[in-house]
């Protein structure tokens, strides 16, 4: 059942190229330069006239929502707010009928996310679900939706659900950007062609597994770990930290790299591994200067870099390469090494990777 892998989590990490492909199959018609998504196309006026999009979710799905916020605003120019479902439902938020609520949930059963949907429906908002489990409660409660086609995710730590959520949300952002006239036809085509190459690039990123395992062996006994990223990769830093803490029980924090000097930099010493997402696109120079700040305080730097990078390689203790891509698609690649790093550390520490203590796969009570 684990298909020759030691754990479901590793199997699911390796399933990502196929899961992403399955998620855009039939929806992204590269040759015709088209995206077809019934859940969006059937309600296109609602989306085109939306005053803003509210995204609610929990945990990893919330991180996918944050990535989507950056992509939606950048491409489609629609204002987006992302909230923890548990906060949203209890804080008397301003919602009206021109708002669209996108609820993201792998299981489709998360109690807080469900409650947020019911509240938004009561206030007249249009609710769109992004779920993985077909026929789940959230998928039935939403007015419309789009499934991620990740297949069953058994490991409690979410992996392929995250990258396929980002894939679906990217398709939606592209479709809306096109329909709103915010991107040119040639850019739209270029983006579809690039997205089509992502599964192969994820495959390439997975090829660093042995190298990542060696890095894991060096840092497995660290009591703390910091994850930094900027822009589209800030949420990936949060996700990397969540992955490490939930399966290895090492305390980890994710931060926007520039927030370092507002507090967390005080934590840096020679004991502190700092994972920095520093792909060549997107504030690269600024991230490099953040890395210099860490280095001058003797922090240990693990850089997630674009293939062929030299600047970060010079500064960092270790680098892990991912293929080059268009900036807003980098989260689909930078996530991969962070999943593998957490996995190997947890295995080396002898933890129960697929069923970490205190956690359940779906959180059906608040
Ligand atoms: O099923 P959902 O996507 O609604 O679940 C949300 C969170 O409970 C989930 O992502 C959780 O944080 C995972 N353990 C993360 O790996």
TrEMBL record:
It is found in: Cytoplasm. One of its GO terms (biological process) is amino sugar biosynthetic process. GO terms for cellular component: cytosol. Its EC number is 2.6.1.16. It is an enzyme of class 2 (transferase). GO terms for molecular function: carbohydrate derivative binding; glutamine-fructose-6-phosphate transaminase (isomerizing) activity. The keyword Repeat applies. The keyword Repeat applies. Keywords: Aminotransferase, Cytoplasm, Glutamine amidotransferase, Repeat, Transferase. Homodimer. Catalyzes the first step in hexosamine metabolism, converting fructose-6P into glucosamine-6P using glutamine as a nitrogen source. This is Glutamine--fructose-6-phosphate aminotransferase [isomerizing].
């Amino acid at each position: 059942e684990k298909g020759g892998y030691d754990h479901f989590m590793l199997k699911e990490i390796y399933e990502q190229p196929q899961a992403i492909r399955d998620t855009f199959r039939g929806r992204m018609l590269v040759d015709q330069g088209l995206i077809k998504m019934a859940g969006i196309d059937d309600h296109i006026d609602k989306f085109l006239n939306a005053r803003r999009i509210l995204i609610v979710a929990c945990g990893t799905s919330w991180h996918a929502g944050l990535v989507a916020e950056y992509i939606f605003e950048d491409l489609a120019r629609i204002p987006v707010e992302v909230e923890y479902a548990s906060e949203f439902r209890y804080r008397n938020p301003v919602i009206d009928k021109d708002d669209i609520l996108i609820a993201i949930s792998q299981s489709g059963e998360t109690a807080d996310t469900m409650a947020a949907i019911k509240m938004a429906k009561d206030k007249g908002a249009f609710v769109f679900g992004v779920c993985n489990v077909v026929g789940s409660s959230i998928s039935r409660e939403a007015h419309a939706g789009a499934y991620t086609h990740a297949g069953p995710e058994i490991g409690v730590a979410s992996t392929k659900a995250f990258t396929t959520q980002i894939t679906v949300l990217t398709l939606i952002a592209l479709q809306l950007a096109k329909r709103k006239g915010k991107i040119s036809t040639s850019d739209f085509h270029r983006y579809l062609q690039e997205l089509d190459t992502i599964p192969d690039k994820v495959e390439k990123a997975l090829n660093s597994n042995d190298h990542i395992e060696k890095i894991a062996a060096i840092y497995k006994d660290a009591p703390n770990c910091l994850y930094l990223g900027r822009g589209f990769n800030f949420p990936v830093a949060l996700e990397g930290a969540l992955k490490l803490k939930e399966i290895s029980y090492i305390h980890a924090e994710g931060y926007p790299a520039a927030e370092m000097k507002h507090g967390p930099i005080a934590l840096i010493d020679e004991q502190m591994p700092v994972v920095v997402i520093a792909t060549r696109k997107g504030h690269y120079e600024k991230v490099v200067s953040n890395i210099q700040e860490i280095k001058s305080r003797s922090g240990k730097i693990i850089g997630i870099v674009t293939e062929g990078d030299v600047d970060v390689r010079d500064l960092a203790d270790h680098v892990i390469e991912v293929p080059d891509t268009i900036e807003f698609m980098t989260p689909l690649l930078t996530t991969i090494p962070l999943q593998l790093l957490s996995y190997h550390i947890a295995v080396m520490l002898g933890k129960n990777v697929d069923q970490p203590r205190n956690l359940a796969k779906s959180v059906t009570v608040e």
